[in-house]
Amino acid sequence: MAIIDDKGRSDWLSQLRTASWRDVPFQVDSIEWSAGENTVLREYPFQDLPTVFSMGAGADEIKFSAYVIGDDYLDQLDKLRAVLKGDGVLIHPTAGSMRCWLHGKYTVREAPTSMGGVARLDLTFVRAEARRYPAGATSTSDQVASAADTAEKSLIDSLAANFSLSDLAGWAHDNVLDRMRSGLDVLWDGISYVNRALDTYNSLVSQYVTFPLTELAAIPGQLGSRIADLLAIPETLTSNQAWDAFSAARNLWKAPSTSSLTVDAGSAPQAIAPSIAAAYASAGFVPNNNQAKLAEAFTPDPSPYETATRTQVAQALKTLEGFFNGVVTIMAVRAVAQIELENYDQAVALRSDLNQQINELLIASAAEPVGGVGDVTTHDALVALQTAVLTDLQSRSRDLARLTTYTPESWQPAIYISYRMFGTVSWADEILAMNPSIRHPLLVPPGIALRVIKHD
């Protein structure tokens, strides 16, 4: 018969912990722990052995024969009963802390005459997670759509407050109308090819062909609404269609007024950053000169004379240019909300591009002769739009792959490139898939930058 000495007894006693539930302690007489698997047993005629089906692990059920004792046992009991519900951290005397749920009802037993100063409880806990019901999440795309609608209305209100041809001389009035028509032609040329694949194309063609420019010029609010209608896009575009719509709108953006970019003579006319253009290239974005044409349409004729009428013409054209720039930006934002982002770098490029463009619109709104019109000012509406689109891109790009480039210095096999970059050959197939220009997996040509997904 084994003898447990005092030292051995103190060892296991010292490991015991005071039982508690949600930081309320109690004493324990005995513990039962039920665990195992849920099984289904099937017995069939003329089959000596049954068939057993495992249904997965069963819930761990822990039963305590607990008690509270002492002159203040009633206070202890009240504190314990107050927390006997829901989930929490259970301190098991021998197993330590674990997250559990109180399972079913509990029983409290008291015998004041024979065992005063003590209350006994039968407690049952199960180790389980809270049921994960579907949790509501804010739709960032819906927020972008709402912010775009508000910004568009604000731009129309601003146009109505700042654009007027009523005080212009005849030649100046006609000059502004001619340039407005030129601007509409450039706008339509830029977006019409995108709309050809959409069900709304015939309606848009009809609106453009029958556009009553002369009449609407006297009603700036209606003029702005009709121009905005030409740039409307459905909310059910495919990703490729959304990219086409974004590309068309992006090529109509006004070039930044202040930029750190050094633009060479042969670079894109809208002075798009090379890194951003490269990020868009995989989606088929091709820069064109529509922006330059639109800028030319709204540039006043040079004259050595600065008369009041010429100043009014210049201001009217500046207001129109700002409105056109605003509505094509909103078209781009609506398209971006429907784009399926390919990688993290593409999302970063879109964030940077849209952030700079909306900042340009904010600067322009501060220079409006009549500001603060409408239910929401142009400045506030643009800030809300900027916040919504940047939040949307950030939310949708959180789990995207991040790209880098690698340029081989000599002919190299794909497995060597994978091992050199990541210490394993496991990513060789991915490198080949990301770079269709590689003709043979053992012969990756030198001097050509490869697109490679980063793996930490």
UniProtKB/TrEMBL annotation:
It comes from the Bacteria. Pfam families: DNA_circ_N. InterPro entries: DNA_circ_N. Residues 16-99 form the DNA circulation N-terminal domain. This is Phage tail protein. The lineage of its organism: Bacteria, Pseudomonadati, Pseudomonadota, Betaproteobacteria, Burkholderiales.
